[in-house]
Protein: 5,10-methylene tetrahydromethanopterin reductase
Amino acid sequence: MKKQIHLNGFTQNSVAPHSPGLWRHPADQGYRHGDLSYWIEMAHLLERGKFDAIFLADVSGVYDVYQNSYKPAIRNAVQVPLHNTLLQISAMAANTQYLGFAATYSATYTQPYKLAREFSTLDHLTKGRVAWNIVTSYLESEAVNQGLKTRIEHDKRYERAEEYMDVVYKLWEYSWEEDAVMADEEIGVYADPEKVHPIQHKGEYFSVPGIHLVEPSPQRTPVLFQAGSSSRGRDFAAKHAEAVFTTTQNTIAELKAFSTDIRSRAKKFGRRPEDILIFPGVVPIVGATEAEAKAKYEELKQYVSYEGTLALLSGHTGVDFSHYNPDEYVENLETNASRGFLHQYTTVNPEKKWTVREAVTHHGLGIGAWKVVGTPEQIADQFESMAVEGDVDGFNIIQAISPGTFRDFVDYVVPELQSRGIHRTEYEATTLRENMFGKGRVRLPSNHPAKRLGSHLSREAAKSVR
Ligand SMILES: Cc1cc2nc3c(=O)[nH]c(=O)nc-3n(C[C@H](O)[C@H](O)[C@H](O)COP(=O)(O)O)c2cc1C
Structure:
């Protein structure tokens, strides 16, 4: 069987989240993001294309690094206005049967006890179709508006997130035994309290003594996505993630180096290389002919807002690019924001130096992801080479215009991938983890680190009984 390609549709609950300025394109409908019909139509479209999931990015602050001001972000709708990322999922789930929902939530700014409850609830409501994109967050504005004096230091955010994962694993995997819910009307017991365990977590950052509030959901732990690209972020991904999202590679050699690195780090944590699916982001631009696709690409670029992209890029990297002239090189920089985004323009390819203008032009259409421009056949060829030679498992499709990029892809490229036998024509199952890893794998596999907390928990429980 040929290598199968998985697909996610990448978006966010805002106007033109990943391509600043494209809201001005006559075909763009991002302005409808506050309208449930927009999300339901999008979910139908992606399910028609047999996508694994809709992937919802999120931040919880404004992009105010550029010019030390929130005004450029407001003017250009750079991820603001920005609505909640979970609330539209129930409506999409009610209107689909198979599509998964990968939602971004910050491990730095949500308490694990609360996050565990929200995702368990959604896993019930969607019948096992939820994923969590674990982020540690990069904006200072997220920290100061949520009660912190300043952003926690980069590696410390990951260290804290390690303990965070222990807490949510304990809640999801161990608090409720599988048969705790009895609903026995005769004896009048709904759930057996002996089978619902306080997790007794007391660590450096979190204290959660009690039980999880939600009974086991179909997947228990949602499918775990992660997108950190720094060395610390990659270790975190290699330990916890079942799928890694990346946009920072733009050649097959760079992709191959990334996937080799993630897969070899996975071994350090007792996992197999194939336990992690790798999804590079791509912006597909489809035409009936190559010339038409190229013309479309040129047309889309005209709508990219230079100022809006500077606001986005400055927020991603933590570098205020208003202090640079457009032809200056982006180099010799370090950051406490997202190292992955900054390194894309400084170190990923030592042969290539980026000027600010080049970085902005590239980042402005799909947050610096690879642009795959051509006929459906050419795009399918490119996907096959990236998947096979770059050793990746699928693609996060990033929009230039919404939902036009998804629609063109589903109408023209998906049939080509299907006719080559490299993308499903029917879903394999109804839970997200099974659609990603194969029928029968509803829950985390036994070699996942979450599964190693079990013996520790029984020791804690024994201690608390004594
Ligand atoms: C492709 C991609 C998408 C990301 N999406 C989000 C997002 O929606 N919200 C967020 O807070 N961080 C997002 N991030 C940031 C990371 O997940 C991570 O928390 C941050 O980059 C810091 O880690 P790093 O320095 O290891 O890259 C994204 C990163 C990448 C590369």
